[in-house]
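Priority: low. Protein: HAD family hydrolase. Input follows.
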Amino acid sequence: MQVDAVVLDIDGVLVDVADSYRRAIIESVEQVCDKTIDRDAVQSFKDAGGFNNDWELTDAAALYVLARREGLKMNVETFTDRVAEGGGGLDAAKEVVGDLPRVAQARVRDQWDTDRLRETFQALYLGEDLYRELEGGAPPLSAPGYIHDEPTLVDSETIADLTDRFDVAVLTGRPAAEAEIALERVGLDVPEDHRFTMDDWEEGKPHPRALVELAERFDAERVAFAGDTLDDVRTARNADDEDATRVYYGIGVLTGGLTGDEGRRKYTEIGADAVIEDVNDLVELLE
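Result:
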């Protein structure tokens, strides 16, 4: 695969977030709603699309748990299928909850505390010290910080090879400060104008704007985007549709929530140009 530039997601590609972000989703919902979803359900929300922002996925998971409590007769697979049919994301989740009677919907809204969910999520993920530093206040609970439980997935040799041969950028749903922590951990030095984080754009994946803009900044003709979710591949497909002057390749990486033969099948079905076991396989894939 011949390319001029490589764009990398962070979570599930450069660092393993199974015991950090995804754990924070599950435990935040448990803390606030007294019931939660499991890891497979988190992946179902991811597959539905529109949940590049884990705060919004947490909100949607809490909405589902509360709606079930008020009588919604759907398992999580049916719920997330409906979310996908509605275009994905939190707005689609709200629409599905509209199946409840109005009185039940009102009870769900009254219990759905998105501010508390976010504060809890950040406290669990960051831990006390980083919470005070980045959020600017006292955390609502004491936690060591799951951010410290993010093993690196990329080898230093891979970083050296990619940065030597290609222009390299990062496109992530992390806030900028948390992206910086992850990049420092893996040893990838990316200038600010070669990054798109949660703080840099409103649309989020799979909207193509960020990927197209990165390609423009590099003046690249052929761009590879490697990510660990279906929305990452959709982002590349959408960029390829929108920007007729360039070629965009979507590469699925099997070190996030999508793994094994099932993950490979899902990536292939939505049009991935390649599926790799981990990010280090880019060295041989790309020319």
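The chain has two domains: 5-16+151-286, 18-146. The mean pLDDT is 96.
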